[in-house]
User: Fold this.
Amino acid sequence: MELLEKLEKELNLKELQIKSLLTITQAINDNVAADGLYNMYRSFLSWEMGIDKMALFVIENDEWYCTSAINFNKRTTKTLFPLLLEFNRLHTIKDDDPELLQQFDIIIPVFHKSMPIAYSVIGGIKDKEDLYNKIQFITTITNIIAVAIENKRLFNKQLEQEKFKREIELASEVQTMLIPDTLPKEEKYQLSSIYKPHFNIGGDYLDCIQFDKHKFAFCIADISGKGVAAALLMANFQAMIQSLIYQYRDLETFVFALNQAVYRITQSDKFITFFIAEIDVKKRQMNYINAGHYPPIMLMDGKIVKLKEGSTVIGAFEKLPSIKEGSVKLDGPVTILSFTDGLADLRNEKEEYFEDERIEKFVKENHTLDVDMFNEKLLEEIDTFKGEEAYPDDIAIITCKVQ
Assistant:
């Protein structure tokens, strides 16, 4: 009779275990949320396994959290959890284990390859009969729940990575459309550019607008931030330039209006450093405004001039505090090298910067080259200087020569 009762109890336990396993497996197949799985785990241990005390710790965003508990004070997680990290297999708590662990009976670690993904500590098992089988089954359920949660985490991480990758691809596509492939080369002037985006997507911008055979403008800008937001702002910025440059005949009014248009979009959340020069080769006249941009270098009559006149950055203020248009009478052949601060921030393995003196020296030694050869040689100089070091930021360069 006793043997029959024992067999009947074992059979009931097996049926309960199978039913619980099927229920949890079905929940996982139905993509039940993590909170739902934690609740099922707690309910299974409490009601079906007769567990009085439990704490389940799961890693999320490189931090460990107590995600499910029975009669456990979660505020003690920071002091209790570090004690669990030394265990990499099922452990029955002994008298010589740390005092904080004495409130539990067993520790169940769950590993993915060599990395821990969950720890469950169990205490207060009411019915000690067939304890070994109960612990084995609790271990199985713990592993199933922990692996399911980890798979959810990895899947969500993959989705985020795919989303980020697509955002970068979209931003790169936008950027490719906005940066001109070629720049004008006329009898009296030539322009050429270099563009090196950081991680395939950047916030730098350059362009050229031809008004007629003798008059043109070129500009270069550095938009704060990266990714889709910077690419979209760049697209808006280009559209603003193309629209406003034909509405206002003087650069001061143009930049003033440009700042207001950018501010309406960004509300000073982002800003743009900007340089624009308007050149009339027939009148031998250049007017320019530097809005907080790294000063372009102009070589004329053997002398270096830095083009600094202008205003503060675009988009930081609703109205520019002050603005001053620079004016230069062009005397003889002129070379103007404009670039974003990614060039000046470039460093080599000795932690030396690609500083102004180096740039000015390069301009003086190579200004007789045509613009494409000039930029090609400059790119070789950059690559030689940085060696194996990565580009720290986007680099945009526009070289203009007026004969």
In short: The chain has a mean pLDDT of 87. The longest helix spans residues 131-178. The domain at 2-156 is CATH 3.30.450.40 (Beta-Lactamase). The two ends are 112 Å apart (CA to CA).
